[in-house]
Each structure stands twice: as C-alpha cells, then as structure tokens.
Amino acid sequence: MKTNLYTLITGASEGFGRALAIECASRKMNLILVALPDSKLHLLAETLIQKYAIDVIAIEKDLSIEENCTMLHKQVEELEIPVNMLINNVGISSTAFFGEGSIGLYQKQVKLNVLATTLLTSLFLDMLKANKPSHILNVGSLSSFFYLAKKQVYGATKSYIYSFSKSLRGELSAEGINVSVICPGGMNTNETIIKTNKANNWLARQSIMNPEEVAPIAIKGLLSRKEIIIPGRMNKLFLLIDKLLPSFLIKMIANNHVNKFKSYSIGNYPINKGVYSGVLETTN
Ligand SMILES: NC(=O)c1ccc[n+]([C@@H]2O[C@H](COP(=O)([O-])OP(=O)(O)OC[C@H]3O[C@@H](n4cnc5c(N)ncnc54)[C@H](OP(=O)(O)O)[C@@H]3O)[C@@H](O)[C@H]2O)c1
C-alpha cells in the first residue's frame, strides 16, 4: 500500500540492508537509504524507483562519524520527509582474537554498531512520535546470546543492541512506537563472510541463510510488532540447545568451532591497520 511516509534504512547499499530495502520497496514503502559515499547507493535507488514506482532518496554518509548522524537527521528534517520507520542495520563484524585487532577496528565497531544506532534512534524519536504508529527495527545478531572467542567486541556490541531494544520497547510501546530486534545467524552478505561461511562445519552451514530470505521475515516480524525476531529453524534450535545444555558444554562446542575460523574483518575495515581516520582508508 503506497503512503507518503518513509522508511530509513542504514547500511543499505549491500548485504542485509540492501535486501531489506528491496523487501520494503516491494511493499510499496518509500525509502531513505544511507550508506558510505561511492557505494552504488544511487544505482539501487534508481532501480527501486523504476521497478516499484515509489520514492527513494539516497544519502551517502559515513555514520561512524557522530556529526554525520546529526547532519543526516537535519537533512531529512529540512526536506520535510516524514519518517515512520527506522531500520538501524549498519554494523561491521570481525572474527579475530582480541590481541590481533587494532584499537581502530574496535572503535569503528562501537561507533557504528552501538553509537550510530543510539544516536539515530534519539535524533529521529520526535519524528517517529509525530508519525505514529511507527516502528524501529534494530539489527542484532545471534552472537549477542553466545559469548564466543574471536567475537568479543562484535558480540558485546550486539548484546547492547539486544538489551537497548528490549528496554526501549517497554518505554515506547505506550507512545505508539513499536521496537523490534532481529537476531540473524550467519548470512551470505558479502565476499568475506561468504568465504568464511563456506569453511564452516556441516551443522553450522545448515543455519546459513541468504539475506533475501531473512529480509521478508524481518519486515513481517516488525510489522506484526514481534519483540525478538529469530530467522530460520536452525537458529531457533541453537538457542533452544543453549537453554537446555549446561553452559560449560556450550562454551566448549562453540569456542572449538569458532577457533577454527581464520581471522577476518569486513572490506573497509582491515583488522590491524592502526587507528582509522574519519575518512575511510580503502581495503588492503
Ligand atoms: N552477515 C552476517 O552473517 C550477519 C549476521 C548477523 C547480523 N548481521 C548484522 O547485519 C547488519 C548488516 O551486515 P551485512 O553482513 O549485511 O554487512 P555488509 O554486507 O558489510 O554491508 C554493510 C552495509 O553498511 C554500509 N556501511 C559500512 N560502513 C558504513 C559507514 N561507516 N557508514 C555508513 N554505511 C556504512 C555498507 O556500505 P558500503 O557498501 O559503502 O561499504 C553496506 O551498505 C550488521 O549490523 C551486522 O552486524 C550480519
């Protein structure tokens, strides 16, 4: 159903964010898509406008920089675009022992996964209230439930997202704003992750999903005001096993599994490149 309201999606040029954008577009939702500069975002926006006859605005900003979050909000306000859905998807993962990673990588992870989500939620809150009924979807991860080796900082940022979403939901439901959190397991979103997923053992490979499968589950769950969205039967099974088995056994199995992974981080964010400057360095 076409409306004059907009859904804002962060990290929308690639991976899960892109799949969410396509899913929302197929539901005739107008979109504001945000990603890094030079990220093919405008091309995606054009394609969605042509295919679904909706309005799509592409805004290129590095959201790990605090002022850019503020500028994004200001830009949307000045354009008088009414937002009634905020999807905090942007986030970066890594798999590496703590000592292997640079402080720059950890700072970027905290800034993007935690700070950008918190800031944007705060900045857009009044607009969401003005356009209610409205929704916030925060993208967490299954790793917020398991305390895995090589996932210390990433897992902790996603535990924050989980806790933040649940508390906020309690506060905002009375104000007509629904808050949901989606906790996907592994998804085949980008080259590095696809390679790692392929190297997984048989059981773990059964849980890997494509972002195009997860996105409809996410939006359906959000619109039906689900509190926690866990996509996929295997991921639900992992959570059940976690509750049933003693924790020392879970840790042993999980860490034994993760320790076999080669260390990696995502595209623009190499593991040990010192402190990242405001403007991103290109991939090595
Ligand atoms: N993939 C998984 O297995 C998995 C599992 C559970 C949860 N998640 C979560 O799902 C979310 C999306 O992950 P993904 O795997 O789809 O990631 P991805 O493929 O690396 O895509 C990340 C998106 O964020 C954008 N982005 C990166 N840095 C940015 C910045 N500083 N400012 C603005 N935009 C930026 C990227 O733009 P560019 O194209 O310009 O780089 C891209 O559009 C994350 O929160 C992640 O933690 C992923």
UniProtKB/TrEMBL annotation:
Keywords: Oxidoreductase. The keyword Phosphoprotein does not apply. It holds the Pfam family adh_short. One of its GO terms (cellular component) is membrane. One of its GO terms (molecular function) is oxidoreductase activity. CDD domains: SDR_c. It comes from the Bacteria. The keyword Oxidoreductase applies. Belongs to the short-chain dehydrogenases/reductases (SDR) family. This is Short-chain dehydrogenase.
